[in-house]
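To whoever picks this up:

The nightly regression suite flagged Response regulator transcription factor as changed. Nothing in the input moved, so I suspect the structure step. Input below, exactly as stored in the fixture:
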Amino acid sequence: MTENAQPGSKQRILVVEDEPTIARAVADRLAAEGFAVETAGDGPSAVERARSYGPDLIVLDLMLPGFDGLEVCRRVQAERSVPVLMLTARDDETDLLVGLGVGADDYITKPFSMRELVARVRTVLRRFERAEPSAAPGPGPGTAEPSGAPLRLGPLEIDQRARRVRRDGREVHLTPTEYELLGCLARHPGTVLTRALLLEQVWDWADASGTRAVDSHIKALRRKLGADLIRTVHGVGYSFEVPA
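Regenerated output under the current build:
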């Protein structure tokens, strides 16, 4: 819960999207899920609305009139820390966000399902509210590391207390969802985890209808950490592999 929210109140979402049809559809679905929602249609009004509304999360389109979502994210984050779920139209826009590290906590590529969007919103809010990483063990066989103990797996180090990841000593910025997905895999190296299990553990989804979300985040992890750490088991899922 952010500093502006009151106990027991609805969590506030600001939807920033210049296409009225998309903005209305997203706002209506989030309102139906129990959130308080307001909208903005351009960069300047988004910054002003974020300042006055005090949202718990911003759903932010990358391409906006006035100035783009990157500038909105910079200006909002300069005033207060608020999680941002960025909407992108193409994979190369996602690559841009990853490369710039603008402060977005997650991203989703259009077209997306409303079910996936709601799941991403809930995931980002849950990660943002956590003061400490969860002490619950991860899925699958084996013994998970104690809560807070660093994971060192070949060239990879996961500092669970600080929620930081390093590869070959170089810190790598991960979104909250990417961090949780990596941790879920890395706690059980060599074990194949199904997409359905990953959805349940990372996204809190009870069914396997959103496997595209897993695949897109695996792609992002490989782009950031290298392609040698996560192995695809076709038709089943993924496993974390420690390089020789």
